[in-house]
Amino acid sequence: MKNKFWEIYRKINKLPQSVRIETCSLCQLNCRDCYMRKNDPNVIIGNGYLKFEDYKNFIKKNAYIKNIELSFAGEIFLNPDLYKIIKYSYEKNINLTALNGVNFNNVSDEILDALVKYQFKGITFSIDAVTNETYQIYRRNGNLNKVIENIKKLNYYKEKYNSIYPILQIQYIIFRHNISEIKDVKEFAEKLKIENIFFKEPWNGEIKFSDLDKKTLFEIQFIHRQYKQYDILNNNIPLCCQPFIQPQINWNGELLGCCCSTHKNLNVNVFKSGLRRALNSKKMKYMRKVIQGKATSEDIIACHRCSFYHQMQAANKYLNIKKIKFI
Ligand code: SF4
Ligand code: SF4
User: Fold this and answer.
1) Starting from the edge strand earliest in sequence, which strands make up the sheet with 255-257, in order?
2) Ligand 2 site, CB within 6 A
3) DSSP 3-state assignment of 217?
4) Looking at the 3D structure of the chain, how many domains does it have?
5) Residue 227 above 90 pLDDT?
6) Which residues line ligand 1 (CB under 6 A)?
């Protein structure tokens, strides 16, 4: 009865059943191109973590939420309230994921156990090498051997509980320094029982997929096809759809809109105003109009300087919300 009420409430108010909440913007690594570690005064994420009490209140007030993506601009495993967040979400039938990425260098046994026991649905490991020497070139302060040990321990718990969750995948950012290790990543993943691998071009533009030779490209596509089998890993929501179906919220409750919105906030706090009111706030509505091509962008929202928006502008092709599923 309660669930039915919330589903009707959600549909009447056109509220999403999925959100993204930054769980911890702090990180022990210092990756070479990480925008969070450059002390850029224009980045508005700040340093902090999601408090359990805020999370609990948010869930109580928005009981129609079914899926929450926790990873964003830091390392979720540094959040001291993470155990409580995972356990509480399980009790409330909420699917948790960290598909944006985690470095997985420091994870306690208690959390590794909880990830399986409380059916955390999916994790993306940011691993762009198969040797520690190469890994540390980009993932400064990180140690691939520690990551491997933690993945092995996680697999131990998966066997112990006879669970397929969390489903595991690797995000491999391609750089000039790690191209030579692409050929070994499939075997690396297989040994660690990792189900999927996907590759990304670096933000700094030092290399593009088109720069790679055909053999390497084949290798990439082969790996990707071979492991792309679970729905949860296929659930790639295009970034510009996020303001509608999976809005990004910062660790302190500030509404950001999407995960690219790191330099402008929308001047509304979800934990204070409530999600429904926040999603109907002035700047959020404006952001949604801009990405649908119904308003001209001004430099008050992140879209104005976002490459995705510039691509839409160049092609004169904007988001068509009628094509978005489960709104
Ligand atoms: S692991 Fe992620 S959040 Fe941490 S420094 Fe690297 S890119 Fe940034
Ligand atoms: S244009 Fe960029 S900032 Fe705007 S919604 Fe799309 S991804 Fe987000």
Assistant:
1) 196-200, 167-173, 122-126, 95-102, 67-69, 18-21, 248-249, 255-257
2) 239-240, 243, 258, 260-261, 291, 302-303, 306, 308-309
3) helix
4) 2
5) no
6) 27, 29-31, 34, 36-37, 73-75, 103, 126
271 and 312 co-located in one domain:
yes
- 254 lies in the same domain as 281: yes
Do 278 and 204 reside in the same domain of the chain? no
Q: State which of 234, 265, 291 marks the end of a domain.
A: 234
Round to whole Å and give the CA distance between 111 and 95.
16
Instruction: Give percent of the chain with pLDDT exceeding 90.
Output: 75
pLDDT level of residue 21 (50, 70, 90 thresholds): very high
User: Same domain, yes or no, for 55 and 178?
Assistant: yes
C-alpha 173 to ligand 2 mean position (Å): 21
pLDDT in tens, 278-314: 999 999 999 999 999 999 988 889 999 999 999 999 9
Q: Which of 75, 79, 100, 173 to mutate to test the pocket of ligand 1 (most atoms within 8 A of CB)?
A: 75
- Compute, in angstroms, the gap from residue 178 CA to the centroid of ligand 1: 17
For residues 221 and 243, state if they share a domain.
no
In-domain check, residue 10: no
In this structure, which ligand is nearest to the CA of 265?
2
Quote the CA–CA distance of 148 and 183 in Å, as a whole number: 18
Q: Out of 234, 266, 289, pick the residue that ends a domain.
A: 234
pTM, rounded to two decimals: 0.94
Residue span of the structural domain in which 60 resides: 16-234
Q: Distance (Å, rounded) from C-alpha 229 to C-alpha 226? A: 8
Specify whether the CB–CB gap between 327 and 244 falls below 8 A. Answer: yes
pLDDT digits over 49-88, tens only?
Answer: 999 999 999 999 999 999 999 999 999 999 999 999 999 9
